[in-house]
Known about the structure:
This protein is mostly helical and 233 residues long. The chain contains eleven helices and three strands; from the N terminus they run ααααααααααβββα.
Amino acid sequence: MADLNALRATLGVSFHKKSLLEQAVVQSSFTNENPGLAPISNERLEFLGDAVLGFIIAERLYQAFPDLTEGGMTRLRSALVRRDTLVRVARTIHLGDYLYLGRGEEAGGGRHKPANLSGALEAVIGAVFLERGLAVTRKVILKLFNEELREVAQKDSGADCKSRLQELIQSRYQSAPVYRLVEAVGPDHARTFTIEVMAGGEVLGRGSGKNKKMAETEAARQALEQFAADFTR
């Protein structure tokens, strides 16, 4: 089988049962053509890794976003465990280089196919879990998904500020936030709008922008930052 030392080093995990990591990179097309060399593909490990990944990501979101509703956490988890995300992570560790593929799959560009890459990544996670347990697997996943987690958090606190704030306000006040225009200054072609967002009779944030949408988004961002600051005190 392949020399997986580089992959083990990237993961930061030593394996007592080397066959587990080897199995994680065996695609079913290789097994079908070479049952004597690799009688078992990575599909069972993929199944296990998918469940472990979903749990670790859900746990991380629960800890990192204490005010986010179930719907909000579900949305973020879906963004993090979907195939596109898994493929990006798999490519950062060059997982395609380690795959065992059948001749036809190899000729058809199988090392770059999203299904093969995402499946192999989940299988690797499953192998780490079986070999080293949940605590080590958690460290590996959070390391591999660090940039994706950061990007999702930034997007969620940026363009989607209003949605997040609405979820938060509805959970706390059982009502929707209210955006109030405070002022609009400047000529028509270069006007600046200032808007406050309110809930429960108090101003939660204020923002300015070249149009009302930008001002509302900035007001929502300010409100979320204030909530975060209050939470960490």
